[in-house]
Amino acid sequence: MKKKNYKFLIPITLILAVVAFACGKSFLNRPPLGTLNPQILATDKGVQGLLIGAYSLLDGEGVAGDGELSAASNWVFGGVASDDAYKGSDPSDFADIAAVEDWTITPSTGSFPSKWVAMYSAAQRCNDVLKIMRIATGISDTTVIAAQARFLRAFYHMELQKVYGHIVFADESVDPTHTDVVNTDDAGVTAKIIADLKFAVDNLPETMPDAGRVNKSAAKAFLGKYYLYQKDYADAYTLFKDIIANGKTPGGASYALMPHYFSNFNPAQKNNPESVFAAQTSVQDGSSVDWGGDPNGNYGDILNFPYTGGPGACCGFYNPSQDLANAYKTDATGLPLLDTWFNGNNVSDPTTPYVGNLDPRVDWAIGRKGIPYLDWGPHPGDSWVRNPGADGHLSPKKDVYASSQKGGFTDQGSAYWAPTELTANNVDLIRFADVLLMAAECAVQAGDLPTAMQYVNQVRTRAANPTGWVYANSDYDAASATYIKQTTPADTYKIANYTSFPDATYAMKAIKFERRLELSMEGHRFFDLVRWGDANTVLNAYYDRWRAILPLKKNAHWTPNKNELFPIPQGELDKLNSDGKIRLVQNKGY
Amino acid sequence: MRQKLDRLSVRVCTVVICMLISGTLFAQRKVSGTVTSAKTNQPVSFATVTVKGTNVATATDISGAFTISVPSGKNVLTVSSVGFADQDVTIGSGPVNVSLADKVSSLDEIVVTGYTAQKKKEITGAVSVVNVADMKQTPVGTGEEALQGRASGLTVITSGQPGAASEIRIRGITTFNNNNPLVIVDGVRGDLHNINSADIESVQVLKDASASIYGVAGANGVIIITTKRGKSGKAVVNYDGYYGVVTRGPGFDMANPTQEANALWQSKINSGLHVGDANWGSKQYGIGATPVLPDYITPYGAFQGNPDADPAKYDINNNQITKANKAGTNWYNTITRNAPQQNHNLSISSGSDKSSYFFALGYLDQEGIADYSFQKRYSVRANTQFNIKDHIRVGENAYVYYKTNPIFGNQGEGSPFSVAFREDEIIPVYDIMGNFAGTKSQDLGNAHNPYADLYRTKDNKNNTWSINGNVYADIDFLKHFTLHSSFGGVINNDYSYNFNFVGYENAEGNTGSNSFSENADYNSSWTYTNTLTYSNIFGQHSVKVLVGTEAYSSSYRFFSANRSNYFSEDPNYWVLNAGSGTQANSGGAGNITVWSQLAKLEYGYMGKYLLNATVRRDQASVFDPAFNTGYFPGVSAAWRVSQEKFLKNVSWINDLKLRYSWGKLGTYSDVPATNPFNLYSTRAGKSFYDISGSSTSPYAGFYRSNIGNQQTTWEGDVIQNVGIDATLFNNKFDFSFEWFQKKISGLLYVNTNLNGDPLFSGDAQQPNINAADNQNTGLEFNGAYHGSVGRDFKFTISANITSYKNKIISIPGGDYFDGYTIRNVIVNRFEVGHPFGAFFGYKVVGLFQSADDVAKSPTQTDAQPGVFKYADINGDGKIDANDRTWIGDPNPDFTYGINLSASYKNFDFSAFFFGSQGGQIYNQTLYYTDFPDFFKGGIRRDVALNAWTPTHTNTTIPLLRTAGGFSTDQSTSSYFLSDASYFRCKQIQVGYTIPSKVLSRVGIDRFRVYVQSANMFTLTKYNGLDPELQSSDLQNTRQFGIDQGNYPHTPSYLVGVNLTF
């Protein structure tokens, strides 16, 4: 009978083996790999890391659905939408943006959700900091972390409000299980933004361990700016005066204008005393080739280089407008032509160019034919412009790096169409010159015209410093943003200070013009025009001057009581109202 | 009970004693004989002769003769052969001569139906049995492609690229995520893509509740494949091979440079420009009233004698002197070729009563019509089995392959076939110095030189090696029990590297630095199955019961590294250490497991009332423990009506069976291991921030990467099927007809709708939740007619048709969500009451013919004479987002396959046609070829010649403009839709078998030669390159039916041989 036992032995052993295997519960316990659970993060280091994650979207990049329109520079919403710049490239390349040039934007215009997606994602990252902080243990300084998170949350909502107008404030109570929100409570949103900013002002120290962190002065600058947008000039003025007198960078340097204008756009001189708060960028950090994962270089402006052959790998977008170039004309005394800048020949016109005085800032803001383009040699003219018929003859310059900085402050990414160039140029969200000019507006409202003029002249004085001009036949020094041999200015520069502001009207005109010149191509212009109530007159006059020449301006018209805001993306309306409950109401006129 | 056991032990003892005695009394004996056809009296070669009750078998030779060793105690032989009925004969003294009757039908074929095998006539579910011989006739490079059109209910769509993955659907799209069916190869989850189809023995497709036994994984249907085994008898050597070419096909009909320049001028006129305006003219064609083709495109617009065109002034970066190709470069022809194909398979198989083996070598070398595209695969299969005693069988199936197959992105505006229609025809392939020419000149758009793109891939590598297979043991005990244990799986390792050149000739990205990336991934999965089967017959009752367990595990790891700035672009220099730029890397890993128990009952009464019942319990690691368990029952019943007395005498009905099945299936689809958890991650691009201002050393940060859902569980399918199988008219005609309904509830769905909005969730990945419901209903038919004319001419016509209707029943948080976005335009929408992937946009009712027409029509942004006039769907007098409507459906009404085969004496002929009727394709390629405002570049000849102008109004092509807009290319509209119906000759071949009399002298058993063509012709009205279009993302139903520049199928011509000795 031994045989029989053997016959049963094998099946029984196998059956036992199977049963034993089934008992191993750990077989089904498979934790996800390469991720962290909330408990692990609920520590000081974890929360600090979440805060870094919340900062990291200041550049507008790093989430699915981001892109050029979510750029921190606001080059589309603030620049192309205004009289500062054209879209650039071929008319149908990024045709969504062409709709900003002539205001044929519709709620369905494709890439407009980018800003929405990036800013709300960023706001929720701030909420994650605040939520995890509550369950965390061993946090070194809860208040300072909370103050930074709330500052960032306010900033992201300010951006949303500037662009889309009627928004929802996403605080910690707004999450996938609490969707009971509606975008009709503007006063409530404003109150929450102010509350966050005030909390930041009250709780942030002046000195911070890192140059890129928000400190008390920077929070004040944003609160002041927000008051200015609310037309609360008195409160804004108080804050601006305070930081003009006492404001400091996180490293403790007093706010000041840099001696050379272009230092503000030079990656080698980032986080200088003029930089109140900036979106920090970095390259060669393992992210730049992380395609689809959004590099940390200035991805939002990646298309905004000369078309081909110069710096950058692509694509000839964001060409400064001819109107902007003309605005840099100055009269015999060195003051801008406040009412007549558009008369006469065009600056750098290929056939009959303007001959006369120019504000020296023109050649730092704009690449023009024959003028040294940093150390890339003289701008060659139309070969750096993709479609001169639509894009004019000028190139952007403030985002451009010097040839000698290539490799040091730049890196390669790769898009499917080509290699792409990323830079470590910070995007200044507020710089001290901006503070001075905002303060000047407040001073006018306070009836203090001499102080207003003094602020404006402070900005002009720096621009007038010949050390910081562009020179021909000279080498560019990328360390200091100056030209080494300062013998032959690249054009006839003439700039002087105002000697009097006779009345408030003149003062405001001068201040507005100064903002245009000083802060051109920095993404502020359209929002300023709307804030001043000038968009209707200024933009429609601008379109009338240019519609005969520029194809994309042919039928351009800015419509009051509608185009102050961009439409809320149709996809967002579709999504948020899809269960029949109205959470988003479209902006008027769209 | 006790009595029973005693009786059992007595029996066992008896058997043992008998075995011992027989072993001493009788040695094995050799028996020989011949097999002939009862009808023709001709010898039957290759018939299988098996000793009944054993695995001992052999095959007859060319003259029908056989010799077999019969183990002691056995005295019955079973003889079987294709086309004949099986026959048992008792061994007498002397030779065994068997006369085989023609087969009544194929109903006695054994079909593998999931953990068990059944005779075809006993099947109760909707199971398609693929005719493997027919299937192998299609000369293709992947296992999936061979299945196209071969079974009703199964659709397979591939691109023409060698080695491209296929879209496989059983009974339509049923889920938002992964719709791929489960593939079981020799009992374990396997790989259909890379299998060598020459090794396949059988293919079954489970389409209804019969797949319930696979519970968790069966929701998309199951394809069961068995591979060949050795048969007892002398070693048989088989060689099959073919050689041929795939032709490049017709390509595009693009405008030549003159036509294109004229069209450009027309677009300027249409946009209100005049000669002398600042924007009149082009850098290439001058500023005159008519365009003039230049002699050079670099220097732009230059003519002979231009000083800058002096070759001495050539500078690749700043003056890349390039002559204009005034005749036009046919870019499609430039990047395509007539591509050679060859495939060789050599197999040796044999067996005895102790063991059997099948050993095969395969070599596939398939070049693609696109230059430098190819697939090469070297494979080895070794299947062996050993019989240990009478009651234990152990064996293994092993398949190892090595493949080199660099695949480039199909379906996208940067893919070679897209760039081929986007690159301007006036650009030559090379400049005057032999370097690549391109759009870097001026006013030539932003496309790439497509030939340069392909040329630069020639040294890229993508190599895969893989081991597939299993080891198993079967143990028979206690007479009616069999224990089966199998462990097997797939291990594969992909290794690739590629170099990114700087396209100095292109308009964009011509100044960057080169880079190199190297990637590896390692995937493995295993299945461990144990089943216990009891089978017995009690009088008229046959019973089979199976219980079992199964464990499945799948894991992957990958990493990739990248570096820029290589001093040399020489392939020998391509290692990561040789670069000088930033080093970057990435990687990831994942693991999921499933643990299952299963049971199956097969019951039959009198062979006419049949019942199958299955149940499976699955637990998957991707769900929270509280929700990870699913039960999947299935029941099916069949009534073989023809076995009833009242039909027995109806002579024209040979067999008739009615079937009904109901079952539950499930899927965890592509649910990742992260699904139940709230998780945080870190990633340089997403959460690092250079807060210290260093420019190169950001601080690492965290971000919420996943929102978890603990309650997510299986997607549940309930499927019902009614079927009729019939064999009629003296077995000449057989058909099956199926009606099915598949209701899917709790569809796994990543909510990007309401709650998934960044406003509520930030940028965290949303969990899969069980939300939407969906329903497919459909009909399938397949039938065959076997006929003959005279004695020598035989033919079979078979056809199958599949039709399904898909409807979304509910969607969470609202009624719809948006589908795929291309160039910032949303193309389709998923909405309750509508099918998956339905196209949603503006309906073009015509072109505005005049200013008056514009004024009288509803207000429309960007309206002007010559542009699209959209339908005012809601009748409110203005065209806006509310006027978007349903403009098309990518789901075909039905697909069908028709197979013809015939033989006359030694000649044979076969043809296979596949068709798809109804359904539309959103032809995104028109965005580039019909709207030259979107970058300059190639345009269709018809557009250049036939676009609307105030004097040419009888056309559907809108006027050419310098800038697009809402009323032309910036909206989703019905203009981009095209009828996707087609009828294609997938293969046609004629073969000749050399008479055996001639061959036997040289020791060859069979020698057949054939000529063949694949994709010889296609009937279609589709306005793109190829209507046989797969999704650009096979895992994502949102990209279904959208043509973004597809690698086409083109005719091929081959010669081949089949040789046996």
Task: Spell out the key features of this protein.
heterodimer; A: about 600 residues; mainly alpha; two-stranded antiparallel sheet; 19 helices; 12 strands; globular; B: about 1050 residues; mainly beta; 58 strands
Concise account of the structure shown:
The complex is a heterodimer of chains A (590) and B (1061). With 590 residues, chain A is mainly α.
How would you describe this protein?
The complex is a heterodimer of chains A (590) and B (1061). Chain A is mainly alpha-helical and 590 residues long. Helix content of chain A is 39%, strand content 6%. Chain A has helices spanning 2-23, 38-41, 44-55, 75-80, 95-101, 113-135, 142-164, 186-203, 216-229, 233-246, 322-327, 362-365, 388-391, 432-445, 449-463, 504-518, 525-532, 535-546, 570-576, and strands at residues 275-279, 329-330, 357-358, 366-367, 395-396, 410-414, 419-423, 427-431, 471-472, 476-477, 482-483, 488-489. In chain A, the strands form 6 sheets. Chain A has a two-stranded antiparallel sheet with strand order 1-8. In chain A, strands 2-3 form a two-stranded antiparallel sheet. In chain A, α14 (432-445) packs antiparallel against α15 (449-463). The longest helix of chain A has 23 residues, at 113-135. The N and C termini of chain A lie far apart (92 Å). The model of chain A has no long low-confidence stretch (mean pLDDT 90). Chain B has 1061 residues and is mainly beta. In chain B, the strands form 15 sheets. Chain B has a 22-stranded antiparallel β-barrel. A 5-stranded mixed beta sheet of chain B has the order 10-15-16-13-14. Chain B starts with a helix and ends with a strand. Chains A and B meet through α1, α3, α5, α6 and β6 of A and α1, β24, β25, β26 and β27 of B.
